[in-house]
Amino acid sequence: MTVSSMSSQYMYRDYQSLSSGRRINSAADDAAGAAIAQKLQSQENGYDVANRNVGTSQDMLKIADGALGSITDSLQRIRELSVQAYNGLYTDADRGAIQAEIDQLKQSISDTASWTQFNTKNLLDGTMGSSHVAAGPNGDGMELQMPNATLKALGIEDYDVSSGNFDISVIDDALDKVLSARSDLGASSNRLDHVMAYNANASYNLTSSRSRIEDLDYPMAVSELKKKQLLQTFNMMMERKRLENENGKVLQFFKS
User: Fold this and answer.
1) Is the pLDDT of residue 240 over 60?
2) Would you place residue 198 in the very low, low, confident or very high pLDDT band (cuts 50, 70, 90)?
3) pLDDT digits (tens, 9 = 90+) for 170-181
4) Can you tell me the distance from the alpha carbon of 225 to that of 215, in angstroms, rounded to the nearest whole number?
């Protein structure tokens, strides 16, 4: 391979780097650097996917918390009606009417616990149990314990005020369970916020490290290309001069 062809090959690599913006376009450009960059990219991709997992889990928690908020409202209304039913001025028929509304509220709680889903998974009927969040770059992470908000779990399945013989503390206990569940979900959501911030920071720094290895220094690359172009032009001029001298010697030989 001549000096000129080698120079052209090197310049082709320079043009390739300038067009792609990358110093390493193949393993031949920097074998060690390419290997390190690939490892960094694997970690970076892992953190990015983990953050998407965290975001998805936070969406699930928001849905669960909203449903529990609805259940809380129903329980609060049941408590109000229970206090009303304690009033001695009401007849059995009156308390029966109050119980009719309570039954509707209980059905609403039951429906919310049964129908609240995320990606077809029931969140509040006790069937989900815990949900693994792959919040780390290698699939590791944390477990989210999902609550059970069915009437049976809340202890109000048979709650009835129509006879006048009932215990309002049952509703208070149910409210405590729901509020405790919402508190746990809120704490889990806050924890996921911190995990997301950490993952984003780790991914950013990995990207920066990979960029220093792979990305092209444009000013230096352009300067090197100009230098090679000048050297190639000079070599071509010298080659032409050499050929002219040799041709001149040949013509002089025939003339003599």
Assistant:
1) yes
2) very high
3) 999 999 999 999
4) 16
Q: Tally the residues of the chain.
A: 256
The answer to which of 8-12, 23-27, 73-77, 146-150 has the lowest mean pLDDT is: 8-12
Structure tokens at 220: 């230096």
Please say if the pLDDT value at position 208 is more than 60: yes
Nearest to 154 by CA among 218, 89, 75, 47: 75
CB-CB contact of 63 with 116 (8 Å): yes
> How many percent of the chain have pLDDT more than 70?
71
SS (H, E, C) the chain: CCHHHHHHHHHHHHHHHHHHCECCCCCCCCHHHHHHHHHHHHHHHHHHHHHHHHHHHHHHHHHHHHHHHHHHHHHHHHHHHHHHHCCCCCCHHHHHHHHHHHHHHHHHHHHHHHHCEECCEECCECCCCEEEECCCCCCCCEEEECCECCHHHHCCCCCCCCCCCCCCHHHHHHHHHHHHHHHHHHHHHHHHHHHHHHHHHHHHHHHHHHHHHHECCHHHHHHHHHHHHHHHHHHHHHHHHHHHHHHHHHHHHHHC
Give the CA distances from residue 27 to residues 7, 11, 30, 41, 225, in Å, rounded to whole numbers and listed in that order: 20, 18, 6, 15, 21
Beta carbons within 8 Å of 40's beta carbon, 6+ residues apart: 206, 209, 210, 213
Closest listed residue to residue 98, CA positions, set 10, 89, 195 = 89
Give the mean pLDDT of 4-11.
50
Query: Is there a contact between 198 and 49 (Cβ–Cβ < 8 Å)?
Result: no
Task: For residue 132, report the phi and psi dihedrals to the nearest 5 degrees.
Answer: -80, 130
